[in-house]
Amino acid sequence: METQLPKAPQKRQVTAIIIVLILLILWEVDGMTIKYSVLEERESGSYVANLAKDLGLGLGELEARDARILSKGNQQYLQLEQKSGNLILKEKLDREELCSDTDPCILHFQVLLKSPVHFIQGELQLLDVNDHAPEFLENEILLKISESSHPGTAFPLKIAQDLDVGSNTVQNYTISTNSRFHLFTLNHSDGRRYPELVLDKALDREEQSELRLTLTALDGGSPPRTGTAQVLIVVLDINDNAPEFAQLLYEVQVPENSPVGSLVITVFATDLDAGTYGELSYSFFQSSNQVIQAFEINAVTGEIRLKKTLDFEEIRSYRLEIEASDGGGLSGKCTIAIEVMDVNDNAPELTMSVLISDIPENTPDTVVAIFGISDPDSGENGKMMCTIQDHLPFVLKLTVENFYTLVTERALDRESQAEYNITITVTDLGTPRLKTQHNITVTVSDVNDNAPAFSQTTYTLRVRENNSPALHIGSVSATDRDSGANAQVTYSLLPPADPQLPLASLVSINADNGQLFALRSLDYEALRAFEFGVRAADRGSPALSSQARVRVLVLDDNDNAPFVLYPPQNG
Ligand SMILES: *[C@@H]1O[C@H](CO)[C@@H](O)[C@H](O)[C@H]1NC(C)=O
Ligand SMILES: *[C@@H]1O[C@H](CO)[C@@H](O)[C@H](O)[C@H]1NC(C)=O
Ligand SMILES: *[C@@H]1O[C@H](CO)[C@@H](O)[C@H](O)[C@H]1NC(C)=O
Ligand SMILES: *[C@@H]1O[C@H](CO)[C@@H](O)[C@H](O)[C@H]1NC(C)=O
């Protein structure tokens, strides 16, 4: 009898699986980041770097380890040519579109190597190209100046926009040559430059009631790109008071989820003049495109409202310059600093990079999935926790920041559970908590780790002598807990222990179902009982088998007439 697994074959089998399936074993992180930079607007297919060389890997290794580039949200900018190890641009990248005002513009990616699993963090800095010229929102800027203004008085002018960043954005302003004004470019704390027209010599309305100048904005490119606007200066002969705001600086905080139309703040200016000259009109002044798109101002009431919903993840603060003009053309200015407050308005996202949904049994530490998680919110709203259900034989391992690997905790046994439904839950720590779930089903594939098992260790069959040949005398039966070919059982007779026993001419076995047949008529008087072994083997590779004993008892039939031994009948 042999129901125990033979030890040696099983060990060999597992070793073979480890080699064949190339087990993915985790490596710890070493915190390395590779950094590359590339100019924006380069054609797709442009060479960025040779990854193999930079990682110190042999040429075949990237291919052998199925190296790939991962990035958040499936947005792929880079492509890896596994053969050459070259990293190339997958598409033409526009810095203005990808990063807007953010400088430097850094796109994050990861390099994933398998067997063993290894992550490398990567950064691609997109360098600005001076592909946009400064632009004024209006072609003509109207400036009304009282002839009583003293030389040295400064008049702020509207600014030009430039979509580029850094030195490629507006650096300086100039004004066409004239005898009355010079231009001064101020550096603001927000990094922008602001033009101010400074009066050099008192104006005389009788001599010149209007003055037309050309304002030019220059960016820092080489050569610089420019944008121009006309400044129409109208000289007024009235002598009144300019409007004055209650505060020069207003500071407001606005939650990013405030609805369109919400009141942000009401500004208020006073003018000592009554009548027409006292009626004030409020408007934006020196405000960026972003301000004009996001806010609107009521010219009469000074109410500033949201024109679109704000997004903390996109723009975190705004600076609004507001002008109050009286009917006479004199104006006063104030600044509103708006801070956008983060609200937990984004649920975490999960990006599956590798999913192996069919894993072999008996192999611990097998990688099932590799995925990244992200949450664009900031602070606690963007911190995440990643879990799976309790009591599953799988564990989550944080591989590098925000990248997890799901591995088997121990060897799985298909015969006890062949399928697992795993729910990966990613929760942020914001208020309210937002979560994302991702369900995966992992099936455990069979390995031939069970030998067929006979229903009995010994079978005893009784046959009445003088049977007809080919009589079905009984059956043996074995089952195998594996599946497929690993569970297909075939039966055979073992050679008898007693070499004198002509077993092959006595019984036969049906290889498929274990039915036993007496081949010829048995004679109790010649053979009262006999014993043999049967074997059940599966079709696995290598095959596993077990054995059982079969004992056949021949039953006596009254087939011989009595005869008298003494005295002899013929005597
Ligand atoms: C700005 O332009 C003026 C006039 O051309 C020039 O004198 C000045 O040096 C420039 N400033 C900068 C910072 O380039
Ligand atoms: C503004 O900054 C530029 C460069 O940072 C510098 O050259 C210039 O002198 C500054 N101008 C003022 C008025 O501070
Ligand atoms: C897994 O989910 C599928 C579909 O919902 C279900 O049919 C199956 O029974 C589940 N398996 C387990 C082991 O829970
Ligand atoms: C994932 O599975 C859980 C438990 O079976 C179920 O409640 C949930 O709705 C599923 N989620 C998705 C996204 O299918």
From TrEMBL:
Membrane topology: Single-pass membrane protein
Protein name (Swiss-Prot/TrEMBL): Cadherin domain-containing protein
Gene3D superfamilies given in the database record: Cadherins (2.60.40.60)
SMART domains, sorted: CA
Pfam families in the record: Cadherin (PF00028), Cadherin_2 (PF08266)
Cadherin domain boundaries: 28-136, 137-245, 246-350, 351-454, 455-564
SUPFAM superfamilies associated with the record: Cadherin-like (SSF49313)
Chloroplast listed as a keyword: no
Localization of this protein: Membrane
Keywords: Calcium, Cell adhesion, Glycoprotein, Membrane, Repeat, Transmembrane, Transmembrane helix
Location (main, coarse): membrane
